[in-house]
Amino acid sequence: MIKEWATVVSWRNGEALVECDVKASCSSCASRAGCGSRVLNKLGPQTSHTIAVPSAEPLVAGQKVELGIAEASLLGSALLVYMSPLVGLFVLGAIFQALFGHDLAALCGAVLGGVGGFLLARGLSPKLASRSEWQPIIISVGLPPNLVRVDDASTESRP
Q1: Whether residue 4 has pLDDT greater than 90
Q2: Which helix (H) or strand (E) covers residue 74, if one does?
Q3: Which of 8, 74, 110, 145 is most buried per CB count within 10 Å?
């Protein structure tokens, strides 16, 4: 189970809207000056994701929850998204090369196969996303923010 903490934005009718912060993997790496992942993380404008998660327990805004998703569903979705365009690229490129015997035809077949694989993944993903085992679940719930009180010790016992 892959776990991540999220903050509740709202709760209504058994469904919690939670926000997960995107963590950059380069914050503490020694080679962050020359890292390509750091540059790619800076390009993306989105720093948080908002998703709806079923929750029978009432939650309040600002409350922390731990979400979990099965590894198999994450691996299955990554396989669908990455491998279907790649397989389409190689298969149609090889078929066009065998049929027409020209590199330009192989290039056109590869492009068509890659686009076709992408469209296949795009069409299948809503059907797979509706499966219950592919949905994130709430594993644990933190205290509501109004129940947590922090007292400053330096201001309590001043004469």
Answers
A1: no
A2: helix 71-100
A3: 8
